[in-house]
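pls design
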């Protein structure tokens, strides 16, 4: 970042002296006012719950222009990455800052493939969960437990540990997500098959069984790879900020990523694709397409507490560029599987159509987000609804690690410690105490 030409001046109506604060510019995007000395100079904090106007760090990884609907990973537009190359090349880009050449790409694919198996003991840990446990509860536990199984790569200050833990996390997450699925349905775990692509391998571990050969469908393989690319990073969202804050204490990468998994689970974040499918099921139970209008009236009624899941975004006030790409993939997958006339998918199209035309959504710039379509695609592929967020976590793991590693390498990095505006009781005495 560099100092901007102008400075910010903060003045007070009570006659306290005004103070000047430096302004910094990044390469693109809004400038920031540096308020680090504010408390020292004024004894005051800033107040910004939800971080609506606060940049919590400097980062060179992902850039979003929410008004334009633009998303760049290390400068490359998401559309180009989704249409050329694969998920592991995107992982390389996010981690290392540049796209791999042919040899680097082959080596990186091999490296990740070498780490797809998990410690055999992990299945016994997994077997302690209830069979009907939510996969995100299981994933939070399994990812945290990686620090117990891979104790030789837990020193966040050691670059080699960071490198190997990054590869382990990227390689093992598909295996763990598939294992939590297989456990829930009572089928044997499928070991990874490293001759397959990253997404092909995941499909086989999910839907293959040991007694039959599994043939990967290339349309579904590509669709899944695209879901992974589109979800790989999204700058300082809630789960990424959670990973950074958790990692800022110096905890190990597995523990920090487990915190990210836990945060992602929430319905306002990664849980939205699951919540979106549940919403479509509910409308279906109300009577299907004929009831969409009635449902929309509930959404628009602020007292109902009903939201249109899969719509709206804190940053995008235009079409989410990932949603456009996912919409294409959605149409391809539905056509491949002959599901264009499936009632649920028809219902989703109707919801989308009404919302895009309705003044309530148009005036508030509420567009479908990536989760609206990714849920539909995953459902069509056969991924159960309660595993959607697990698939998102798998894809986002690389972003969490890239952001965590960037933070550790930042000379300005400090343990995260927000302040507060205290509104509770001032000092009281317990009866009888002095
Ligand atoms: N349905 C109905 N109304 C909505 C929705 C929605 N999905 N989203 C926002 N609004 C309304 C709000 O009620 C508010 O209306 P008002 O101005 O009349 O009070 C206005 O639009 C602005 O909304 P905010 O709450 O200020 O938007 P914010 O940036 O805080 O919220 C969020 C963003 C949380 C994503 C919200 O849009 C939402 O809950 N959407 C549904 C959940 C979802 O799809 N989340 C996925 C996010 S993407 C991701 O994590 C990959």
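designed seq:
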């Amino acid at each position: 970042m560099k100092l901007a030409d102008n400075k910010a001046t903060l003045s007070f109506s009570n006659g306290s002296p005004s103070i000047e604060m430096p302004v910094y510019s990044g390469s693109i995007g809004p400038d920031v006012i540096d308020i680090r000395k504010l408390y020292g100079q004024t004894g005051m904090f800033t107040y910004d719950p939800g971080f609506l106007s606060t940049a919590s760090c400097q980062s060179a990884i992902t850039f979003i222009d929410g008004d334009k609907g633009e998303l760049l990973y290390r400068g490359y537009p998401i559309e180009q990455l989704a249409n050329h190359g694969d998920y592991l090349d995107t992982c390389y880009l996010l981690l290392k800052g540049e796209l791999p050449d042919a040899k680097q790409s082959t080596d990186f694919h091999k490296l990740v493939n070498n780490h797809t198996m998990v410690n055999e003991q992990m299945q016994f840990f997994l077997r302690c969960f209830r069979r009907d446990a939510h996969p995100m509860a299981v994933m939070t536990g399994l990812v945290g437990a990686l620090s117990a199984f891979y104790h030789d790569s837990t020193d966040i200050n050691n670059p080699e540990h960071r490198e190997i833990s990054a590869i382990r996390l990227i390689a093992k997450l598909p295996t763990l997500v598939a294992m939590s699925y297989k456990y829930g349905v009572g089928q044997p775990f499928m070991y990874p098959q490293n001759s397959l692509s990253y997404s092909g391998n995941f499909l086989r571990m999910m839907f293959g069984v040991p007694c039959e050969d599994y043939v990967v469908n290339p349309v579904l393989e590509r669709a899944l790879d695209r879901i992974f690319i589109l979800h790989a990073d999204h700058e300082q969202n809630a789960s990424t900020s959670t990973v950074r804050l958790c990692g800022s204490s110096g905890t190990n990468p597995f523990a920090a990523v487990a915190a990210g998994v836990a945060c992602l689970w929430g319905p306002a974040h990664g849980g939205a694709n699951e919540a979106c499918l549940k919403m479509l099921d509910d409308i279906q139970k109300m009577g299907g397409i004929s009831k969409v209008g009635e449902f929309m009236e509930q959404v628009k009624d602020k007292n109902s507490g009903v939201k249109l899941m899969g719509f709206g975004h804190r940053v995008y006030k235009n079409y989410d560029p990932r949603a456009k790409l996912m919409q294409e993939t959605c149409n391809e997958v539905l056509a491949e599987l002959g599901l264009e006339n499936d009632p649920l998918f028809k219902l989703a199209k109707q919801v989308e159509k009404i919302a895009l035309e309705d003044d309530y959504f148009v005036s508030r710039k509420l567009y479908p987000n990536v989760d609206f379509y990714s849920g539909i695609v995953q459902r069509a592929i056969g991924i159960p609804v309660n595993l959607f967020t697990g698939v998102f976590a798998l894809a986002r793991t690389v972003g969490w690690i890239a952001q965590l590693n960037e933070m550790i390498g930042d000379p300005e990095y400090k343990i995260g410690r927000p302040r507060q505006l205290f509104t509770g009781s001032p000092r009281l005495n317990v009866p009888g105490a002095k």
